[in-house]
Amino acid sequence: MKRSFLSSIIISSLLFSNVCLAENNDFMWEKTYKKTLATNPSLALSMLQDRYNSLESGTEKLYVSSKIHNFMMLQGQPYYGSTSTFDPEHSSREKLFIDAINYEGKLKFDLAKNNYLQLLSYANENKDIDGKILFEYHMCRLLNRQTQYQQASVYCEALHEDINNAVSSVLPKYVALRIVANNQEFVGNYDEALITYKELLSIIPVFEDASGVYNDAGLLLKTLGNYDQAKEYISIALKMRENSPLPLLKAQTYHSMGAVLFETGDYQNAFDHFMQSKIIVEQYQYPYGLMHAQLGLGKAMIAMKKFEDGIAHLLGGIETATQQGNSKLRGDIYLTLAEAYRIQNKYSVANDYANQAFELGSSIESERLIGSSLKVLASIAESQEEYGLALDYYQKYANSELARRNMRHQSAYIELETARKDHSDTKQESKLVTTIQENKKNIASLKEKTQIYQILLAVLAALLPALWYLRKIEIARVELDSLTGLLSRAAAIRKIKKQPELCSHHLNHVIILLDLDDFKRINDTYGHPTGDRALIHVANILQKELSVGEICGRLGGEEFILLLRNVDDLDIRDRVEHLHYVIAHQTFIAEDNTPLTITASFSFLATYKALSDFDALYSILDQALYQAKKNGKNCIVDAFNDPILFPPAAYESTQS
């Protein structure tokens, strides 16, 4: 018995020492490989190939094959695996594996998922814990990339449990923990994600590139609003990747830093980092990275009011996203374009892009994209002061968000059910049953909350029109000239500046600046009350003569401004002359009952372009009005076409 006991101790010791020796050998090999990779990539590839050739068929050989694939991809080279005539069964599994990784790179997620699930099923059937861990890792990563975070969490949690229970595994624990932490962040378990990142940083070997962990942790800190610490972490990642032989990793971190800088309002630096990312991904023909770089560049340029360049980047992003079949990102770019044109007061184009995003969201059944589109459409309508339409969009947006919330929880239930069917591990099935039951309770609770939310939404919908009406009355009270009832100076100019470019170049915005002639003489002769009557008299004429949607405001004193809309080229002069005529030929009554008439000097200009640069146009009109006074008053000067002699002060400034 002693001999038997002693033998068991010796065997156990030998087994333990063999495990430690194997782990130590793997550790030393990885350390040497990483060191070589940093200085001599060609030699590092040879090391990978030598290790691959020395291994027997099995999970470790598959894992090394995936490392060769990763190396080649980061060098911009394709890789399709190795075929062996000695073990066709292993070659078949390797082909499934490498094909899946290639499908994933080409965003063919369903094909990749099918292959990974076949491999995971084979590992479960053969009780291959290394294979189980490896393919749970790939399923977790794949579903994360598809944004199917709830379904991904099934595989990520199984991976987390299996990697913690394993004495050793082919897939390094620090590799597994990074993808687990990503999923915890995506499903909103931020505390757990921070704990996992902390554990990851504590176990990652010195020779291993920890830059990816710092990059991911930095992005999590950005999500939590801790921008200073986010920049600190991503700066560490950038420094670590500064001399990396794998440029695509550097491109990723440039993009991450750009995203953080954009959130802090440092748009120029954000642009510079997005551009660095774009240069690298273009060089290595990586379309997934290119789409995100183009979106980041466009957003940064638009934030800096460099609309033409920003829109060019966004249109390039649409082309790339269309080629890659990435509808969700294409929808995000449509919305960014819509916002860019809204800021420029080009509402027609803004509406077109927002509606394209809405239609795309409907076609791919993306409640997130539908809701975002409705919110942008509401914002565009509000900018045009179409408050009824804005309210309609906001109500649809609220309903969409409510539906999205319900769908998200229903989807969580469906995804968990799907994952249960796909994942054959008994222990995991037990966990899934518990999770599904909990989700059923949550859904029932959510339905009750949804009913309350719908009641509140109905009350809000009933109140909003009244609130909008009261707000419009208040705005009108503040923005109207108290004497004439016309728009005040600020209100009139703001409305004029919002006018977009006209679709037809044969139609025009016509801006008229007019000043009443000899107004001071009326005040001096008949008194200020009669002067006020004159102003009210002219205001009434102008309001009566203008069409719906045209603008009339009092700039101050006896000066008025008008905007005529959609005037045909041939009708411009007629409309201006008609207004000039009716003012001069209608009488009003002075305080002493004397009938009086008053004339006005006019300057005008016509353009089909947007009026956002009104300040420059006003300067031109003002000079033309000065010319009208110099011409003898009671006349009209075309600011763009009639000769204008500048006042002496204009010349004095250039001669000094």
Sum this structure up briefly:
The chain has 656 residues and is of the alpha+beta class. The chain contains 26 helices and seven strands.
Which descriptors apply to this entry?
656 residues, single chain, alpha+beta, disordered N terminus, elongated, Alpha-Beta Plaits, two-stranded antiparallel sheet
Overview of the molecule:
It is a single chain. This protein has 656 residues and is of the alpha+beta class. Among the domains are: 55-171; 348-421, no CATH class; 489-655, Alpha-Beta Plaits (2-Layer Sandwich), CATH 3.30.70.270. Helices cover 72% and strands 6% of the residues. It has 26 helices and seven strands. It has helices spanning 2-39, 41-54, 59-74, 88-105, 109-125, 129-145, 149-165, 173-186, 190-203, 211-223, 227-240, 247-263, 267-283, 287-303, 307-324, 327-343, 347-363, 367-383, 387-422, 426-479, 489-497, 519-526, 528-545, 572-584, 614-630, 648-655; strands spanning 507-516, 551-556, 559-568, 588-589, 595-596, 600-607, 636-638. The strands form two sheets. Strands 2-3-1-6-7 form a five-stranded mixed beta sheet, sandwiched between helices. Strand 6, helix 25 and strand 7 (636-638) form a beta-alpha-beta unit. Helix 10 packs parallel to helix 12 (247-263) and helix 14 runs parallel beside helix 16. The radius of gyration is 36 Å and the shape is elongated. Residues 1-23, 409-416, 423-430 and 649-656 have low confidence and may be disordered.
